[in-house]
Specification:
Helix content: 25-40%
Structural class: alpha+beta
Distance between the termini: 61 Å
Number of domains: 3
Strand order of the largest sheet: 4-5-6-7-8
Number of helices: 9
């Protein structure tokens, strides 16, 4: 899995299948051969892409076309069992607790919304903090891994005319930690990826106001502008953490500043 070169992609959602010699971007639904990839990345024709590759490889077979009738479908099929969940339990693993503490997340809050997920990838065992989405899948996070078993939003509807929109669940947990809340008092949508925005456009259009907690990057700013085209009122909360990548980084930096400085005792010992 790689970060897509075509868009802001924090979740590494572009799959490359070396056996099939094909790629598939789960964020956009696009895919193809290596030549298709070169054509899209460089905005060139088929002939120009083949020429570019030939300069690098004298043997054209090194960048073969689709080997099967429907390799893109094969990649989708193969993606399903890539992460196999073996056990779901309450958060107890010290490594995961330390990871959440590093992110300044309240552990009680994390336990309320997350689980400890034990899973297999290629037969090898791993564990991570899991945040459940509306499809029954999990966003998975630990210090060294960021992925998911399936890509979907996470939502909670209370019936208010205001909705909070978060890009990722770490930002949602950060918000709750900062407020010292166990859950949001208004309707909630965690996108888990900006590519899920089309799924909630109609839902968001019915709210009187939307408060957004998106990343301070080009994709986040574009999304806010897009929301303004179909939402009645959009309150961009990123202005409060504008000097930071996202809300969680803001909390981490804020917590570091608050840490008391230990002064060396130069007084006379008794």
């Amino acid at each position: 899995m790689y970060h897509s070169p075509f868009r802001e992609d924090h979740n590494a959602s572009l799959k490359v299948d070396y056996n099939q010699n094909v790629w598939y971007d789960f964020g956009t639904g696009e895919g193809g051969s290596l030549i298709d990839l070169v054509m899209k990345m460089n905005k060139v024709t088929f002939y120009e892409a083949a020429t570019m590759l030939e300069k690098e490889h004298s043997n054209l077979s090194l960048f073969s076309f689709h080997g099967n009738n429907n390799p893109i479908s094969d990649i989708r099929t193969k993606q399903e069992p890539a992460i196999s969940i073996k056990k779901i339990q309450a958060l107890t693993n010290p490594a995961l607790i330390d990871y959440l503490k590093e992110r300044k997340i309240n552990i009680e809050t994390a336990n309320h919304h997350c689980a400890e997920i034990h899973y297999l990838v290629g037969g090898k065992p791993y564990f991570a903090v899991g945040f459940k989405n509306d499809s029954g899948g999990y966003e998975l996070r630990n210090k060294y891994f960021k992925g998911c078993t399936s890509k979907d939003i996470t939502s909670a509807k209370i019936g208010r005319d205001h909705c909070q929109l978060f890009e990722g669940f770490m930002d949602y947990l950060t918000f709750l930690t900062m407020k010292n809340w166990q859950r949001s008092p208004v309707d909630l949508i965690v996108l888990n990826s900006l590519t899920n925005l089309p799924k909630v456009k109609e839902t968001l259009s019915f709210y009187r106001t939307i408060s957004t907690f998106l990343d301070n990057d080009e994709a986040g700013k574009r999304t806010v502008e897009e929301l303004k085209t179909f939402c009645k009122e959009v309150n961009d909360q990123s202005v409060f953490y504008s000097k930071h990548k996202d809300l969680n980084e803001y909390l981490c930096r804020k917590s570091e500043v608050k840490q008391p400085v230990k002064r060396k005792n130069t007084g006379i010992k008794r």
